[in-house]
Amino acid sequence: MKYWFPVAKMPQNGQDWPLVSDMVQNNQRLLVFTSIQSKEASEGLAYQWNYMVENQYGDDGMKAGSCANRGESPPLDDKIRSLVLVNYFRSIPMKELSCEDNSGNLINILHTCDGAAASRWANFVAVDYYKRSEGGGSFQAVDLLNGKLLCGCDDIHACVPGSTSGACTP
């Protein structure tokens, strides 16, 4: 509870969230969401569908070139919800396939879901076996998302002034 970001401070109607640095400075850096609507009023847990949209999880959410909406979620292009969660994991976890899943396929679905979510990059990404990949994997995916969200670049490292991480391609 000490670090909990209160529901009363959560942005409404698609407004911007505070910077993580501001949340840390205020010791309110833990976001807690629930899928049970009544818990927002009774327990102070944020009802996730008031704040985010989400693509389909499991095998149905892993189709190349498609970013299907999760049934319970508002439409992906609903800008009233300011957070975007992208799921990319199998219905039955398969460790032996996770290296391929968490590499180029993951990067591709992030690009696809950006388009489906009205040109909004994901704020969260959910995968299985996050340490397994053929290359940069889930860490590269997070670097891509943070770069896109922070400065419009393909890698967070390119956002640093004087960076030699390569050209920024917003």
Structure write-up:
One of its GO terms (biological process) is lipid metabolic process. GO terms for molecular function: phosphoric diester hydrolase activity. InterPro entries: PI-PLC_domain (IPR051057), PLC-like_Pdiesterase_TIM-brl (IPR017946). There is one protein chain. By secondary structure, the chain is of the alpha/beta class. The protein has two domains: 1-50, no CATH class; 51-157 and 164-170, no CATH class. The chain has four helices and five strands, in the order H-E-H-E-E-E-H-E-H. The chain has helices at residues 20-25, 38-43, 98-116, 137-150, and strands at residues 33-34, 46-47, 52-54, 83-87, 124-126. Strands 3-4-5 form a three-stranded parallel beta sheet, with helices on one face. Helix 3 (98-116) runs parallel beside helix 4 (137-150). The longest helix is centred in the middle third of the chain and has 19 residues, at 98-116. The mean pLDDT is 93.
Summarize the model shown.
This protein has 170 residues and is α/β, with parallel strands linked by helices.
Summary keywords:
170 residues; alpha/beta; 2 domains; three-stranded parallel sheet; two-stranded parallel ribbon; globular
Secondary structure blueprint with pairings:
Layout: H1 20-25, E1 33-34, H2 38-43, E2 46-47, E3 52-54, E4 83-87, H3 98-116, E5 124-126, H4 137-150
Parallel strand pairs: 1-2, 3-4, 4-5
